[in-house]
Amino acid sequence: MKKIPLALAGLALTVGFTACSGGNDADKSTTTTTTTSTDNTATKADSMNANAPAATTTASPKLPLNKDDSTFVMKAAMGGMMEVEAGKIAQQNAQSERVKAFGTMMVNDHGNANNELSTFASSRGLTLPTALPADMQKHLDGMRNMKGKAFDNHYIGMMLSDHKKDVGEFEKESTSANDAELKSWAAKTLPVLKTHLDSAQALNKAKM
């Protein structure tokens, strides 16, 4: 085996050490540059966020109803409940199929109107009644004891009278309500009530 001169061995170690040290310095430089770039980006992002306009809400608070509008809503709610309950009784107790069909129409149409009115009332902080007054409930209890033609005549007479009043009140509210949304709802519901009135008049003339 040949012996390597000590001078050459020392030179090789020096070159190797220098190469390793150079590589570490390059890594450190790259790391420093990357960190600086990241910090600059974060600073710019923070600056942009700070200058961004604050989010604003466009929804305006709902004002409470005045006395007249509140009174109308309460009457409409109780009347609607009455129409639905009476319609359910008609589905069971009526003799005429046309009267039963009328009762079904009352349940569906007034049920939908009641749901819409309940949603509106909640948006104005108004709580609607969940039960009928004693006099209305007594009337319904009496109707449950009626059968056949006697029931048909009573029910249609009641619907004729009720819807004449309803149409008049909704016509007034659709033009004079203080709350714009309530005025719109009354105007939308009015044609449905007029259809009910026309149907009740036709059934009353049929003398079932």
Give an account of the 3D structure:
This protein has 208 residues and is an all-alpha fold. It has a domain at 67-206: Up-down Bundle (Ferritin). The chain is built from six helices and no strands. Helix 2 (67-93) runs antiparallel to helix 3 and helix 2 (67-93) packs antiparallel against helix 5 (148-176). The protein is globular. The N and C termini lie far apart (131 Å).
- Helix % is over 70%
CATH level-4 homologous superfamily of the domain at 67-206: Ferritin, core subunit, four-helix bundle
State the order of secondary-structure elements, H for helix, E for strand.
HHHHHH
Mean pLDDT: 81
CATH topology of the domain at 67-206: Ferritin
Number of strands: 0
Count of DSSP-assigned helices? 6
Beta-strand fraction estimate:
under 5%
Structural class: mainly alpha
Task: Using the 3D structure, state the CATH architecture of the domain at 67-206.
Answer: Up-down Bundle
Cα gyration radius (Å): 41 Å
Main β-sheet, in a few words?
Answer: none
